[in-house]
Request: fold
Amino acid sequence: MSATTPGTTPYYYVPAHSHHPVMASIGLFMVILGASQWINGHEWGKYSLFVGLVWWLTVLWNWFCEARRESEGGLYSTKIDISYRWSMSWFIFSEVMFFGAFFTALWWARAHSVPALGSLDNAILWPDFKAVWPSIAAGVTAAPAGLVEPFQTVGPFWLPTINTALLLTSGVTLTIAHHALREDHRSKCIQFMWITVILGFIFLCVQGYEYFHLYTELNLKLNSGIYGSTFYMLTGFHGFHVFVGMLMLFFITIRLMKGDFTAARHFGFEGAAWYWHFVDVVWLGLYILVYWM
Reply:
C-alpha cells in the first residue's frame, strides 16, 4: 500500500479500506429523505432528519479522529501535506464560486432585472411600477400588485459595523496565534485562538439579534421581494460559514491544548485559518454591497 519501511514516514500514505464514506452517505440520505418528507407534511420526516444528522455527525467525528491519529502517528509525509493544501485551496475556490453566484444574483437584480421591469416594454402591464432599488414598499420593486408587505431596508449602523469590527479583529488575533505557533509559543497561540473563537461566537449572537430586530421591527422577511431574498441569502449563508469556521477553530484550539501540531507541521491549523480569512473577506464584500449600497 504505502512505500515505507518500519520506523519511517511513508512516501505517500494510502489508508486501508474504510467504511466511513458509506456510513456518511447513509446519514446524508436519511437527512435528505427526512427533510423532503417533512416539508411535504409527513411527520416521520423530522425524525429521519434528526437521526440522519446525528448519524452523519457521529461518522464525521470518528473519521476526523482517525485522520488525527494518522497525522500524529507520523504517517503523513510531505506529499500528503501538499495534497491537503491543494484540497483546501480547491475547496475555498468552490466557496468563492458559491458566493460569487449570490453576489451576481444581487448585481443582476439591481442592474438588469429591476430596470427591465420598469422599461417601456412593461409599462402597459405595470403602469405604476417604479424601477428603483432598494424596494421599500409594496408596488415599488417586484410587487406592483401589492403582494409584498411594506418593510424597511437595513443600513450599516450599528450592528453590521460592530460585526465588521468583530470579524476584522478576529482575523488579527488568528494571525497573532499563527505566528505564535510558528515561533513555538503554544500558550500564547492557545490564548489568541480562544479570543478568535469567542469573537466568532459574538458575531453570530449579534447577527441573531439583528435578524430578530429586522423581522419584528422592520418587517424585513425572506419574502420581502428581491431585496429581502438577496439580503437573507447572502447574510444567512455567510453566517452559516462563520458558524462552520468557528467550529473548525474551536476544535483546532482543543487539539492545540492536547499537544497537537508543531512549529514546522501544522497544516490543520493553517487550513482553518485560510477558511476564516476567506469568511472575513466575504463579509467585507457583504458589508459594502449589501449594507452601504
In short: The first helix runs from residue 20 to 39. Residues 1-7 have pLDDT under 50 and may be disordered. The domain at 81-292 is CATH 1.20.120.80 (Four Helix Bundle (Hemerythrin (Met), subunit A)). The chain has two domains: 1-76, 81-292.
